[in-house]
Specification:
By secondary structure, the chain is mainly alpha-helical. The protein is 51% helix and 4% strand. It has three helices and two strands.
Length: 101
């Protein structure tokens, strides 16, 4: 089980990303647009730099919903490989069974 503080911090990052996502997307479109002037692009870059660091989506970490483990997370199920295997072997995940050939 991961530290509760790490899980809480990651949840806070997710909320921050949601708050700033629209504004950040608008500024990124200005930066990527080839028709905007150099000064406008610089201004947009400065505005993005003034946003909180946690507003960047790359700072969010995919974690297991059950244990909070940060590595080996299966996106489709939202849990770590260890938890997935345990629940699958117990038969608690519908439609999932161990392969054998």
């Amino acid at each position: 089980m991961a530290k509760t503080s790490k899980i809480a911090k990651n949840d806070q990052r997710k909320k921050t990303i949601g708050v700033y996502s629209e504004r950040r997307q608008e500024l990124l479109e200005i930066i990527k647009d080839p028709n905007t002037s150099y000064d406008e692009k610089r201004e947009a870059q400065k505005k993005i730099a003034k946003m909180p660091r946690d507003a960047s989506p790359t700072r969010h970490r995919n974690r297991c919903e059950v244990t909070g483990r940060p590595r080996g997370t299966l996106r489709k199920f939202g849990m770590s490989r260890n938890t997935f295997r345990d629940l699958a072997l117990k038969g608690e995940l519908p439609g999932i069974k161990k392969a054998s050939w």
